[in-house]
Design a protein that fits this description.
The protein starts with 24 loop residues before the first strand and ends with a strand. It has 35 helices and 31 strands. Helix content is 42%, strand content 17%. The strands form 7 sheets. Strands 12-16-15-14-13-17-18 form a 7-stranded mixed beta sheet. It has a 6-stranded antiparallel beta sheet with strand order 27-26-25-24-30-31. It is globular, with a radius of gyration of 33 Å. The longest helix has 34 residues.
Amino acid sequence: MLGRLARAPAAATWPVQSTYRRPCVQVFSSANVLVGFKVSKQVNYGESVKLVGSGSALGDWDVSAAPEMRWTDGDVWVAELELPAEEDVHFKYVCVHEGGEYWENCADHNLKVSAVSVHSNWDDQHLDVQHSSTGNQPEQQPEVHEEPKQTVHPEGGDQASGSGSTADERLQHNQWQGADVEFMQSNNHKRERNGVWDTTGLEGAALHIVSSDQKAASWLGKIEAVKKLLVDQAPEQKPELDALAVAYVYLQWIGTGAIQCAEGGGHYRPNRHAELSRIIFTSLERVIGDPAAAGTRALLARRMHPKLPSFTEAYTASVPFTRIRDIAHRNDIPHDLKQEIKHTIQNKLHRNAGPEDLVATERMIERLEAEGGYNDSFMNEFRVFRGELRDFFNASSFTDMLDALRPSLDDADTPALDNFVKAKAKLDSSSESSMNDIVDTLHRLTTVRVILSSGLASGLRNDAPESSLAMRQRWRLAEGRSEDYAFVLLSQLTNMLEAQGGPAALAKGEDAAWALPIGAAVLAIRHVGLSGWEPRECAAVENELTAWQQLGEFSLADNALRLKATLERAQRLTQSYTDGLLAVLPETANALGKALGIREEQVQVFTEAEVRASVVFQLSSLLAVLQKAARTAADCDEWDAIVAGEAVGTLVEVGSMEEAKLAAGGDTVLLVRSATGDEEVGAMGGALKGVILCHSLPHLSHLGVRARQERVTFATVEDDGLLQSVVRPLVGRRIKLTAGAAGVQLSEYDGPAASGEGASAAASAPGSPAASGGTINKAKTPELLKLADAKAETCGAKAAACAALERSAGSQYLTPKGAVFPFGTMDLAIQEANVEKDYEQLLEKAETADAEEVATICQQLQDLVSQLRPDASVLASAGKELGAKTRAYVRSSANVEDMEGMSGAGLYESVPDVHAASAEDLGAAVAQVWASLYTRRAVLTRRAAGVKQSDASMAVLAMEMLAPQASFVLHTASPLDRDEKTLHAEVAPGLGETLASGTRGSPWRLVVDKASGTTTMTSFANFSSALVAPTASSKAARFQLVSKTLDFSKEDLSRSADARSQLGQKLSKIGVALEDAFGGPQDVEGAIVGDDIYIVQSRPQP
């Protein structure tokens, strides 16, 4: 018996509506016709299709009132509508996205309502019309008009037959793309195959499958090929990602008929297939249970299970499916039908089973039911056989699957299963279901899945008997089908939410209006976590959404902003899931599709179909509605200005800034899909005029500071609808990007270049005081300086500023203790190692090397310098100065950073968690900082600024490493318009690297009026993790920080307005004091340790 290891955690709770107005019900006239509409249309992620036309059923040409169509495999959108018989209807299909809509580019379609099916292609005037052969009209049906109740179409299907349903349509046999069924009076099953097996350029898993498929005509042979790949060839019988991806695509195409199965020449009963499935199942379960396989690898293993046959005792028996033999020999059916059953299904199944047998059985029953007149006993027996066959192919209804688990459930768990089945049955049978009914069913479903997941969490025993493995397969399949049904429920809920006014209505609603949609999002995220995808992140996001829902008051801007932050974090979760599939499936599908001759359109839509079939897709759709509503409630824009300015140039889309190749003189605005924070804007040259980044970025991050210094206009936009509708259509065109305190504008532009765009000439002119590196004094003998004695000419501007900070510290802020390895220390180490000649030759080459050569030269320089060490006496002095137990941060203090016109923010390396009393650790860390002077990015930046490589010198600052609750960066004047009346701060949990590096997410962003201390929030933190110092129990590598998953429902700055106000006032006073001390606006880095605030750096604000 498969019991749970632990009690299932309770699903999140939320206020549940208890009263409703009774809806007004309209009864259709018998003169109505049920018409099915289909249109082929490939759309972008986040888009949908509506059916718009004349008459109330089609919205009277109002897109907002028009019915939304449902996506099915092959990018076919479908809808069924009751329309008045014999009337002329005019209509068009419209693609809708969050930022707008676009219509078919053809004349209106015209239809005389007597048809039952209408199919067309997008932009094609022609309609493929089919008419009913019987002329029967549909039965009277109720239509719901009042909110909050609305007709829904859940999975459905009775428990006996599991007949057709929305969720069932997503099963493989219901997506059949293979040959049409042929009912046979004799054995006409073909052994010949028309195929392509082109192994050119293939290797590894793909080569194995294509080569094996050429030899394996039958389903059994193909499963054997998969078994060899996933079991025999897999290390420790745990297949790697590439093998899983290949098997996944291959089995999907087999199950849908895209890859043909034919007679293999042998005589093998289905028990052979079942035995192979059991072996493969065991291998897949090992992957799922391996922590090292978490992520896409485990995800594909989970999703592969339904593509294999069942191996319960009924199907591993020596002669399974005896019922069909008895059916084929009944005396109460015509002889011709007996022959058809015998040759089309019975003999074929017992000789050479394949997915086509289930399709043939389904089609035959459909035909017999349509013909009518057959004995009830015969039809019932045939349907029972169909149920057995569905069970073998793991295609039973969800309800049937759950019923099969009852004998293995603990007594304490049976009521949860009963409650869900009752709620599902109620939803299936009701035409007046409400949002509350949907969320209640989703809640009960989630409880069932938690029970199943808990039972499966024990892992796979090596000595598990076959009966236990078979039951485990049933549990795993039911657990996966739970997610499928969650997809259905979320789809209904999102459609209902849109029908009730969508984001605009939600933003204006009371807290009760938000409760159910947020509750549904919480449950959907629970399902993502239960699927094994980033479970810690899912738990944190779930906690946050639950907390914000309970606190409510979304009419308050701060509360709406806080909710928006967590919704954005949740959306990142869906994007990471999608990215995981996109990283492996498209390339795999393309390679296999080309090699096996799969139709191009099937290959092209494979990955999108997989994404759209996942619960993550529906979660993303629901989150998009909630995000837009939260933005509206908070009165904030989809755009975020990072660097103010006006940029004119050609809009070019790139994956990253490193991919950009800017032609000389070709003014360019980059649309960048992802940034890491390591990019150097200045090294890209003057052709770069602006940047639009497709995700949020801390304003005061290193990348933001560099862009500000180079006067490159910079904005971010994270709204996918806006990206698709407004931004991406302008790619390749000349555009104008304007960013500032008033917002961001983007438009096509054919006027003159904007004044002042691009890099500032003053900032980068060779020979200017900022770019020259200044006059420095190098140490002639080994020495260590106390931090208080550091000066710019001996230790660099950063160390000198830290010394000034130490001298000015008092009641408002503290500074960490430190010591400095001055300029000249590296030169002395070079002399000691006798590598001056090699070093000088490499420096000279670095001045003129082209883009390809410079990377090699820089690596050689770094290799040389990283082997150097300061004098042993200096390292010993540093250990004493800092303290025997001190963990240190070893940081750069170059003569070409922290200066007017050349901040060098994040250009050089800082080394964390260095044992100060260890000469070995401290020496290696100092050398690592020295080596960062010669990274490719650093060398190119100096070249762009006109600084000779030989003029660059590095002092090293070793400072006490703090363990802060939060770190911050603040600009004492507005970074957008230089308004000196306000201070702008960005705060994030943990150490400052999270802020500085450009990690995906937003910080707490505070704008403080210096005069009054009034604090205004412009964003709330939603980073997924914080970097913190390792503890004794941490398994961190040398000089590495550890990552900690964040839960902002436990953070005071997210929960408490008083905490935010108090911090804003403290930072404002500190900012004013630093401006007074250093004579102008400052770019400040600091940390919050308990009740104390430490300032670790202050430099001129760029």
